[in-house]
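In this section we walk through a basic example: taking a raw amino acid sequence and producing a predicted 3D structure, encoded as discrete structure tokens. The instruction is simple. Fold the sequence below.
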Amino acid sequence: MSNTLCFCGLLLSSVSDHNAVASLHARLQQDRFAIVPASELWPLLLEHGATETGRSPFAGYWDLATPQRDEHGIEIYPYKGTLTSYYAMDTSRSDDAQRSTAETEPEFPGHVVEHIDPTTVNGDNASYYRLHQQWPLSADSNTVMLAVQRLVHRLMAAGATGSFHAMFSAFRVTRSETALGDPSPEGVHQDSAVLTIVMLMRRHNAAHFSGGSRVWSLEQPSGKPTTESVRSDRLLASHTLREPFDALFLLDREVKHEALPVLQADEAAGPATRDVLTIEVRRPPRSEEARGGTCEG
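The resulting token sequence is shown next.
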């Protein structure tokens, strides 16, 4: 297995805010991923305007997460609640992100619409959409949300200028007698993003070894890996985010990733949950020809 498995931080607290972002960008360019512990990331978010008083309200938004649905009203992954909104960023301008309305449609109020591969089916009905509950508008003024957006903006700006869309998703995965608790039923995959960030918000009654993340080389086939694959050098890293604001940063076009099932630490204590903030940064569709530089590798 690659030596990058041992990398577990950037010593962000030992350098200035500006140098910390530059250091993270450099590490991503070198290793294509970075695991940043909360002890380093939270101080960096404080430098970007987060406040201690904003933490609890921010974590509370996960209580509003509901399973995504298709256009027929059928729940997709009933054990996986989501909140999703898109934000427009322009690294040539200020670090303010603006909520995008391009992904909303009048017939689905309060939701954003994600277009998917039309070959996806639910029974006899072809499914063309995923409907996600939007983040409440109050989230846009939460100091933690704003700090994360500013950090993403600066990280992208460290490599190039241009327009980006950032998809912010709150995921709550539940494991119980009736809930599967698998955050990545598709197994090893990519999200066609320039940059993907997975940031832990909360774990409740989750077994210590469960709910981890894996990073794979591009040579690893997509789908559920075999035992042989897990033992191969195609597995670049295996790590469990355990503390709030532990985070995994990925250059999504340069590596693949996978989230592992959540298991209950104590079945008598009720369901296990894992709350994560996932951020997927992409070029707007009209700007695909402008790829290059920035965190795109």
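Looking at the output, two observations stand out. The mean pLDDT is 85. The chain is about 20% helix and 30% strand. In the next section we compare this with other chains.
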